[in-house]
Design a protein that fits this description.
The chain has 4 helices and 9 strands; from the N terminus they run βββαβββββααβα. The chain has 120 residues and is an alpha+beta fold. It is globular and about 35 Å long.
Length: 120
């Protein structure tokens, strides 16, 4: 199930695992991504805690975890090819995966209709 945040992250949840990335809208606003700092596998994140740093030709931005949980995987490819975020933000450009520790937090996220209304 896809969910979204007001800070332009997408979250795809299945079986208490969430894959997290930035939306197509966000990558367009940032411009060409040139560097990505990902969280460490095994680290515990709380919802709203800084998780990722993205640097683009326009700016450096901190991304915050939309959910609490343990980081179980990061997209290693982005270390060598950060441009994958621009090329395919919801496929090749995913950032990290967490094992969700508080499933109720998912209910606080926006569905696609609400997110599309936000970016109009």
């Amino acid at each position: 199930m896809m969910k979204f945040t007001s800070t332009h992250e997408w979250i795809d949840t299945a079986n208490h695992i969430a894959t997290i990335g930035i939306t197509d809208y966000a990558q367009k606003e940032l411009g060409d991504i040139v560097y990505v700092e990902l969280p460490k596998v095994g680290s515990q994140l709380k919802a709203g805690e800084e998780a990722v740093v993205l640097e683009s030709t326009k700016a450096a931005v901190d991304l915050y975890s939309p959910l609490s949980g343990e980081v179980i995987e990061v997209n290693q490819t982005l270390r060598e090819k950060p441009e994958n975020i621009n090329l395919s933000p919801s496929k090749q450009g995913w950032l990290f995966k967490i094992r969700i520790s508080n499933p109720k937090e998912v209910d606080q996220l926006m569905d696609e209709t609400a997110y599309n209304d936000l970016i109009k």
